[in-house]
Structure formats: structure tokens, C-alpha cells
Amino acid sequence: xxxxxxxxxxxxxxxxxxxxxxxxxxxxxxxxxxxxxxxxxxxxxxxxxxxxxxxxxxxxxxxxxxxxxxxxxxxxxxxxxxxxxxxxxxxxxxxxxxxxxxxxxxxxxxxxxxxxxxxxxxxxxxxxxxxxxxxxxxxxxxxxxxxxxxxxxxxxxxxxxxxxxxxxxxxxxxxxxxxxxxxxxxxxxxxxxxxxxxxxxxxxxxxxxxxxxxxxxxxxxxxxxxxxxxxxxxxxxxxxxxxxxxxxxxxxxxxxxxxxxxxxxxxxxxxxxxxxxxxxxxxxxxxxxxxxxxxxxxxxxxxxxxxxxxxxxxxxxxxxxxxxxxxxxxxxxxxxxxxxxxxxxxxxxxxxxxxxxxxxxxxxxxxxxxxxxxxxxxxxxxxxxxxxxxxx
Amino acid sequence: xxxxxxxxxxxxxxxxxxxxxxxxxxxxxxxxxxxxxxxxxxxxxxxxxxxxxxxxxxxxxxxxxxxxxxxxxxxxxxxxxxxxxxxxxxxxxxxxxxxxxxxxxxxxxxxxxxxxxxxxxxxxxxxxxxxxxxxxxxxxxxxxxxxxxxxxxxxxxxxxxxxxxxxxxxxxxxxxxxxxxxxxxxxxxxxxxxxxxxxxxxxxxxxxxxxxxxxxxxxxxxxxxxxxxxxxxxxxxxxxxxxxxxxxxxxxxxxxxxxxxxxxxxxxxxxxxxxxxxxxxxxxxxxxxxxxxxxxxxxxxxxxxxxxxxxxxxxxxxxxxxxxxxxxxxxxxxxxxxxxxxxxxxxxxxxxxxxxxxxxxxxxxxxxxxxxxxxxxxxxxxxxxxxxxxxxxxxxxxxxxxxxxxxxxxxxxxxxxxxxxxxxxxxxxxxxxxxxxxxxxxxxxxxxxxxxxxxxxxxxxxxx
Lengths: 392, 464
Description:
The complex is a heterodimer. Chain A is 48% helix and 10% strand. By secondary structure, chain A is α/β, with parallel strands linked by helices. In chain A, strand 5 (242-246), helix 11 and strand 6 (265-270) form a beta-alpha-beta unit. In chain A, helix 8 (166-188) runs parallel beside helix 10. Chain B is α/β, with parallel strands linked by helices. Chain B has 19 helices and eight strands. In chain B, the strands form two sheets. In chain B, strands 2-1-3-4 form a four-stranded parallel beta sheet. In chain B, strands 6-5-7-8 form a four-stranded parallel beta sheet, sandwiched between helices. In chain B, helix 5 crosses helix 6, helix 6 (114-128) packs parallel to helix 7 (158-167) and helix 16 (379-390) crosses helix 18 (411-421). Chain B starts with 21 loop residues before the first helix and ends with a helix. Mean pLDDT of chain B is 92; it is low at 1-29. Classes of the chains: A alpha/beta, B alpha/beta. Chains A and B meet through helix 5, helix 6, helix 7, helix 14 and helix 15 of A and strand 3, helix 7, strand 4, helix 8 and helix 17 of B.
């Protein structure tokens, strides 16, 4: 493959490119690594992409492979750990990400914080960093997180031998904001009836976008927008169910395919590779770290960071789930699938509250606890089809 | 921490009489120390204090151990109600299943922390009964909280997610979440370069807890009293440390089976004179036993380290099975959350909140320098090595509870590194849970213990 083959080269082939990057995840990062560019893998929505980009590195969000059985990880990592984390760790041990120059593991949850040493000791990489993201989001927490980010920046500077200037950070914040704005434009094309882009196609784009340098990612999304907008809108709206999926890193099309093969459409998400990370920008502050720290603690609705706000229970609910009310309205959602990985305390403890919050919006909810694996797909298919039949 | 005499240690399995029911059989068992035998009464008294506090108009707070709030709560007369402890009691009485099922019926997965789901099941049931205790609530039940003091921190996610889940059912109960973190281990980063900002943050968060409690108790913090209680906790840590160090003696006068009871004052009563006095009494008792050469078992064959993991509270009698094979546990990492204060090299400060923050930060980071001196090691492994050497240990037992990631993820790594950087110590990893008895099979556990004893014997012969 030559130096440009993996790049999206313009309008008209965005969806095909996205699908290729989805199927061959990390292709472009691998290519850039071959060209001498540093590639920094990171786990979860809390990976500080603005800083990685400002350091001149390619941020690559790590994913696993739901169709790949875990064969190497269990020797080193307990099976009571989140199945997603175990699957990614397995992929790294198998050499799937052999082109990484380092890895950042943010403190998302116990499954990431308690396994960091296991990653650091078993994955032969020149660099690894545990980013201690606090769970609270009050003013002292922002100040503390800025200090943590400062330590991270210093360690990246030692790795690359280059200073990360405020100017580089500010430019990176702008670039990532532009990326989010562009993705939101694409999301807006899901509001129509029927949506201009299917849930499967959208998953391809979301996965492809998290594996590219930020400007290339933005260019790819823009290309998809152009292509999708050119689709002739159907004169008559569809009466198929409009589904929202909720959960953490749902980075494959398996579930979405079940929904869409059954005649419904996935029109919105509240997942950590989707709306959770794209819906709100980082504020472009004088000291860029102010805006960056604030974004990670207050603007990404994850169950491990939205923990302290609200004077009472109702305020706390709105703080944690209020965005979902907007999604339901704007995307005309009439069914929700809450898909939680097994052994996940942060999401698991929210299930009754989140379920009742969505049901109060007159949206039926299917709650599924499952593995990060297609080995259970038959059971999942039966449950989803029964749910879709129920909501009509 | 919580078991009554029906599940605690005894000197000999032979004390059980044939023909008695299981419950009767367990009742006849005795602990190795008088101190451990007192614990059930102490735990009951704590629960009674919870319930009486409501009548006396004192604020009752649901809270969690190792959240740094002990001195603050005690100096403001806030009465802590420990859900972890209560779930452990339910488990020890083998009466947690109905509460776990109640939570499961509400869509709380069985893979979540069972301390939390047991307690949630209890709270859900009580709400359904309009505030009355669920029928036959173990030891009279735990008080309904006035506030919940949660903690976003390194230790575990349930410390801030469980309170939110509780509030879904107890919607009138306010929650306060404070942040408490310690620097993560990184061989490339000197913790001294980052400790200060960790401590600063912890102090700010603790100050916010004080403000929250001032608002809800309607009284101001007595800072002099707080400082006195910080002194008392320092003294208690030292007394605890010195007392437990007595267990190095051969034969050991107390093993982990008892320690799972004698941890109660350290975990749940820190900042009280009773906690200090408890360890002083235990110190005297262990000294007497050592003078009389009185051990947990008469003929110690194998000395084991409980390397990590919370125990199965419903199966503490497994320690007895080890004892019946001549194996004792003179030391454990679990619930040894105290260090000799002089080991911590604490900076001088008059601010009691800063003293709390530094004490707990250094509790974790004081192992970092030792780990750095042995390339490839980990702070947790350094602790294991120190115990192996100081307590003359033959093998290490870990327990992996399926519902708790915080204590139980990383155990495999510790076992791997121990072998790599130290020596090939026999290791056993038991699997089970803290509260959920459904996956427990006593015969299987005993078979595994038998196999491990054979490994220990083989290793001993080889070393000899």
C-alpha cells in the first residue's frame, strides 16, 4: 500500500472509505506509523485526544473484535474484568496493534484502573501512562485534573523530545471541535424520516473516525455528509421503529444489524464512541487546559464522571440523563436498547434509574446485559426481535 | 468483620459434634482470640447505635470504609452506617440471597458488587414496607440514612455508584460525593513530584465534606476536637501495627480467620477510643499467648499469607479447614489498612485535614520507593515480599471474588511478578464471592485446599 492509498481522497467515496476503515481498523494509523509518525493508542472516551494531537502523535482509540474469542488475555487478566477491556487486551497481546508507540489508559472505571499494571507489564511498548481522571467534577476536581494533565504532558514531552506549547494545544482543541461539529452535522441527517444514513453506516463512520488523525477524520465525515445529502429523500416517511442505543463502547455493527434487518432503524445513540463524545465541544479557553479539563469532567456524560451534581435526586437525574430527553425529541426516538457489558459497575448501577427515566419519556426500553462478543448473538437477536415486535 | 460465632474460627475441627445440625455445629466453634470473640457483640452494638441515633436526633450517614471521613464524622457526632458491614453480616448468616434477588428483580445485575446489591435489596424491600425493616432482618437491620457520604476515588466504583442507585429508592436522602485519589504507581515518575497536588485536592474535598455536614447537622465543626481525633487515629494505627506484628511469632497466636473479625474497629470504628482500646487489649492478649507458646494450631506445618482479596463471609470456616491441615495465616494484606506512622515520613502541618490526607496518601505511596529499587516489581508485590520474609511464609493464598473488581483484578499479575522478581513461592488463587453464596461449593474448596497443601509439602521438601 502506498502513502495515500489509505486516505480518504475526496467527495463521493466517504461511506466506502469508512466501511474499509471499519473493517480494517487502524489501517491508516499503521500506514502513518510506517511513515515515521508516532501512534498513541488510548482506551475509552476519556482519552485526551487534544493533547495527543498537540504532541504531534496520532490518537488511536483502541477497540477489540467481537468475533474474536479471547485466547491470550485470560492468562494475565481476571475474567471478572469488563469483557470489552479483556477483549482489547487480548487483541493487543495478539499483536493487532503492533504499530503503537505507546498507550494511554484513563481512569474510567475499576476495570481500567485496576488492570493498568497488567497492561503496563505485559504489553511491550516504549510508553504507557495511566491518566488519573477524577470522578467528581467540582472546581477542585477540575484543578486537580489540570495537574494530572500537566504530568501527562510532561511525560509526552519526554517521549517525543518536543515541547507541547499552549498554541499547539489551542490549535488541537479547535481541530477536535471542528471534528465534533462535523460529526454533529452528520447526526442531524438522522433526524429525517426515514434518516438519510442507516445505523450500520453510521457505526462504520464512528469507528473509522476514531482511528484517524483529526483532520483526516473531519474530512472523511464531511465526505460522508456530502454523499448522504445527495441521496434523494423519500417522498413518504417510513413507519418503522426509530431506535436509540445506549451503552459504553459499542463499536461494532452486530446489534445494529439485528435491529435494521428486522425493519427498524437505529437513528440515535448515547454510546461512548458516538454522541457522548461528539455532542459537546471543549471551550476554547485562554489556558487551553481549562477547556480540556472541563470537557472531560463535565461534557462527556459518562456514569463515572457525572456523579456529584444536582441539589436533589431530580436534579441529579437531569444532570446525568437530561441530554437523552433532547435526543428522544429531536430524533423522534420510539424505542431504546440499553446494552451493558457484564461486570460493569458504573453502567450497571444506573440501569433502574436510566430505564425509568427513559420510560418516563414514553419510550419503551430493552435492557440487555451481555458480553463483548458475537458468541451470544442468537440470544440477543431473539430478544431484540421480540422487543421490536412489541413496540410495533 | 462481621461474622457471629456461628461462622468464626475454632481451635479444632474436632470440636464439632456429630449429629448436630449445621447451625448448631457452627455455634459450638470458638475463635482463637478473646478479642475476635468480642467482635460480634461490638458489631451488634454498632447497629444498635445506628438505630438509637435516629431516636436521639443524630445524623446517620451511609458511608464506606477507606473514604478518609472517620475523624470528620466522629468529631461531628455523625453516626456512620456501613452498608459493606451489613451485607457481610447478611452473608455470614447465610441470609443474603433474598436481598440479592430483590435487587436483581429491579435489574441490578448479579455481576455487580454484592455488598452493594445486597444492601440495595434491603433498602428496596424496606421502602416497599413503608419504612419497616424487612422480616427477620439480620441483627435487627441497618438504620435508614439521613445522608449518604459517597467517595469518587481510586478504590472502587461502587463507592459513588451505589449511593446513586440507593437514591433512586430513597429519593429524599442527599448524597455528597468527595474525591480522594492517590498517585498511581509508575516506575518512571517520582511520586514526590506529584503527591502535593494529590494532597491539596484531597484537603479541598474533605473541607467540602465538612461544609456539607455542617449544613445537615446544623452545627459547626470543632476543629480542636478533629485534631484530637486525628491524633487518636495516629495512635490507633500504631497500636494496630504493633499488635499485628506480634503475629510473626512461631507458633502464631492469631491468624487471618480471626483478623477478618478483629478488623472491625480499624475499618468501622476508627476515630473512637474503643478502637484504640480494642487493639491495646489484643496486644496484651497476643503477648500473653506468645509467652505461653499458645498458637492457633499446636503443630504449625505451613505458614501462609492471605495475599489479597476479600473473604467469602459465608465461609470463614474455610480458614479452619486450613488450620486442620496444620496451615495458619499469620498475616494478610486485606484489611491491614494501617501503617506505623513513623514509616510514612509525614510532612509537619497543623491542619487536621492535611494530616488525614498525607497519612492516607503516604499509606499507599510509601511502598513505591521499595518497588523502584527492585526492577520489575510492584508496590503490592513489595508488600507481599516483606510479609513473606518477616512472617516466615511458605505459600500465598489469594481470593478472587467475582463481584468485586477493585480488590480482585490484578491478582494474577501480582502472583506472576512475585515469581519473577522474588522466588517461586507456592500460590493458590481461590475463586468465590464476598456475599453471594450461590457459586460456593464447600467440597470443591476443600479439594483445592488439599491440593495446595500437597504443593506446599512438595515445595517444603524441595527447599529442605
